[in-house]
Amino acid sequence: MLVLPPAYVDELRSLPSSIASPTVAHAHNLMGSHTNMNIILRNNLHFRTLVEKVTPNLNFLTAPMQDELDYAVEKDLPECEGEWVSIKPYHVILRLVSRISARIFLGLPLCRSEEWLEISTEFTENVFVSLVVLRLFPMWTHGLISFLLPSSYKGANYIRRSKKLLVPEIIRRRQETPSEKKPEDGMNLLSWMMEIATPTESDPSDMAHLQVVMSLASIHTSQMNAVHVLYDLASRPEYVEPLREEIIQLIKEEGPWRQWQKPAFSKLKKLDSFMKESQRFNPPSLLSYHRVMLEKHVLADGMVLPRGAHISMPVSAIQNDPEVTSDPEVFDGFRYYKLRQREGERHLHQFVTTQTTSLNFGHGKHACPGRFFASLEIKNILVRLIMDYDWKLEDGKGRPPNLTAHEFIFPNPEANLLMKKRRKELLLDSVVPDAPVPATRTEPETSVEIETREL
Ligand code: HEM
């Protein structure tokens, strides 16, 4: 793999994907031939649905997200009124994120299916185990090794199970008459996929497969960010009150949080900053901006990128360079909040902002299309967890150290935090606005301004 400095990002951005392909790079990174991920090489319906339907409709998706979060909190968080209870945030947050994602991907009632919740989380874990193992061996051995790897056939089995579950649902939705549909029925990824699919993309079995691909792209990535934030907050409790004050202030100005839509969440600038700083300290991967060169290309300074080369950027090294981030070794949760106060930088330095020096979501037209969704989902979860619960580390223990595998970094799945429900009058739903604020309904957005949009 050719790891390039960020000076080349802008030049690389201008190359079409027929020369520098992100998709071939993703398939290669995920060992697609042995992990059922090569479908992305021939079908990008999931990507288009995200850009054309999900992101422009995020305003309408806030209410179902919150509704599912209520259900998830009820089902998956322990009773902890008046007493500290130990939980494993990795597993608990995975349940919350997978439930909310399922609600937006499939809609009610299918999102509550335990079968789907298992498929959408366990497939990813098995793909990850397979790729970590396979990468240790030369490529010519991969066929044989994956034949022997339990994670490999378990992964394939999850794809089969997803088809068994979703294909009949796709057929049922196709046969449904308009009078049988409820208003919320069309507002989910699966129905939107069915709506915009071209004839060659309309195979129900492929659509089911792509739902699993989307789960892989979205659930663990968002869950890991939320878990890192919780670990960072528990180990730096001085940030909790300012974050709560920001939420309370926003309720006073914008109305109860249950009426908030995407623009209100974008006003949580301190929380946004904390999420970004936490991501800087705990990036999902040391490398990003992966491309495979489908043709040889010579860069302006004469650097040759040969055909077949896999290139990437050292995202973590870049954002920890003192020329990019001052005092990079200091965790400053409100670093980006402060930067946004500078003239002309109000829209920069957001969690979702990508720049040549901020590449955790990639950059340019192939940057992660799900980051606006991720930001909204993570903020919904964190607002609830910060306002309704106190958090602390186990006695005598520091922030749980991260684990690494190859270039990947993830929060320790077996670490514990202690949580306790706050007094009733302090809870999120008890905070009332200064004056009644009318609920607003906003039209879907028609375009996605990638570089400058707020969220
Ligand atoms: C904190 C959470 C997330 C992180 C850190 C993350 C990161 C990334 C990165 C680094 C890429 C590759 C960009 C490139 O090619 O340069 C990517 C691609 C992608 N992400 Fe995300 N992502 C997150 C959440 C999500 C969510 C929630 C969704 C879906 C709702 C999603 C859907 C996708 C898809 C479909 C692609 C592939 C784009 C393509 O085919 O070119 N991601 N993501």
Automatic annotation (TrEMBL):
InterPro entries: Cyt_P450, Cyt_P450_CS, Cyt_P450_E_grp-IV, Cyt_P450_sf. Heme binds at C368. GO terms for molecular function: heme binding; iron ion binding; monooxygenase activity; oxidoreductase activity, acting on paired donors, with incorporation or reduction of molecular oxygen. Keywords: Heme, Iron, Metal-binding, Monooxygenase, Oxidoreductase. Gene3D superfamilies: Cytochrome P450. Residues 435-455 are annotated as: Disordered. Its cofactor is heme. It comes from the Eukaryota. Belongs to the cytochrome P450 family. This is Cytochrome P450. The lineage of its organism: Eukaryota, Fungi, Dikarya, Ascomycota, Pezizomycotina.
